[in-house]
Structures are given as structure tokens and as C-alpha cells.
Design a protein that fits this description.
By secondary structure, the protein is an alpha+beta fold. The protein is built from 8 helices and 4 strands; from the N terminus they run ααααααβαβββα. It starts with 6 loop residues before the first helix and ends in a 7-residue tail after the last helix. The mean pLDDT is about 85. One of its GO terms (cellular component) is plasma membrane.
Length: about 180
């Protein structure tokens, strides 16, 4: 009987090994690098062409072993054997979620009405470091519908200083109905 194991179980197993070996962030960087490799058409074609012949990937695993932790290389082999390489982005996302839950990584999403300058990004980073400890992974987005201010999500916290959100709250509470 074939047993299907979810990508979350694989991600959790690697996370636990990462914590035990004090390398959870190093593992994450290796996963992200491999994710970039998979975005390369030629590399992805090679991975797909070797889908039925696992031994054909030995040179790939050997080469990765020169710069990736051995635990990650073995993990990638397991993912390939389980035919989950097409779900690799989900594995990385779930691994990142475990890092976030374990307080190894602060996942930050910043939405602003305009592209932030380097000075604004530096000031934001300074403020984040004053409030949160650890490593940050930051994604910046632009939303023209925002009126001034920012929306900053850090892990499960949301800071919304935009005028648009304040107006929305007033309207949702019926604040302008009598005007």
C-alpha cells in the first residue's frame, strides 16, 4: 500500500533536523537557492527528464553537496524520490512557516502607496529591529489605493498607518452617514 506524505510533513522533518543541528536558517537558504535553480528552464528540464531514473541525478546531488548541507541534499533526494519536486515551492513555504513559528525568522510584508526610498527602508528596518529580534525576510509591495502611510505585516502582527484604512474604519462604523 502506497502511503502519501504531505509536503508539510517533509518540511517539518527538515525543520526539526535543522533545529537539532542549529542550522535551520542555513537549511532555508539552501532550499531558496535550490528553488532558484528550479526556476531555471534548463535545470528544471533536467529534473523532469530524470523523473524515472533516480541514478541520473547523482551528479546533481554530488555537485550540490559541495555547497549545501548534506542533510538538505538528502532531503532533496527524498523529495525527488517521492515525486514532490513539482510541489517544491509549497515545501519551501511550509518550511518558512516553521521558521516563523519557531521565531527563527521574521517574515515581513510592507505595502506602501509608492516605492520606498533606501532611507525609508533603512528607517523601517531600524524600527523593526527595535521591536523584533532575529533575521528578517522582507517583501515590498506598492498599492496605489493606499493614501499615505504603510501597511506592515510582521509574522502575525499587522501595523496599518494608512489613511485609507482609517477612512474605511470610519465608514464601516457609519461615521459619515449623518453628514
Amino acid at each position: 500500500m502506497l502511503m502519501i506524505i504531505s509536503t508539510k510533513v517533509y518540511a517539518e522533518a527538515l525543520y526539526q533536523v535543522g533545529v537539532e543541528t542549529s542550522k535551520p536558517l542555513e537549511f532555508y537558504e539552501s532550499l531558496r537557492t535550490f528553488q532558484e535553480f528550479l526556476n531555471d528552464e534548463e535545470f528544471n528540464r533536467i529534473m523532469g527528464a530524470t523523473f524515472l531514473d533516480q541514478n541520473a541525478l547523482m551528479p546533481v546531488w554530488n555537485e550540490l553537496g559541495k555547497s549545501f548541507p548534506q542533510e538538505v541534499v538528502k532531503f532533496l533526494g527524498m523529495i525527488q524520490d517521492a515525486k514532490l519536486m513539482s510541489d517544491f515551492n509549497r515545501v519551501v513555504r511550509e518550511y518558512r512557516d516553521f521558521l516563523e513559528e519557531g521565531k527563527h525568522l521574521n517574515v515581513v510584508e510592507v505595502t506602501s502607496p509608492n516605492v520606498l526610498t533606501e532611507d525609508e527602508k533603512d528607517q523601517l528596518m531600524h524600527n523593526l529591529k527595535a521591536r523584533y529580534k532575529g533575521v528578517f525576510e522582507i517583501a515590498y509591495h506598492v498599492d496605489d489605493s493606499l493614501i499615505n502611510g504603510l501597511v506592515v505585516r510582521v509574522n502575525h502582527d499587522i501595523y496599518d498607518t494608512s489613511i485609507k484604512s482609517k477612512l474605511d474604519r470610519i465608514l464601516n462604523q457609519g461615521g459619515l452617514e449623518n453628514e
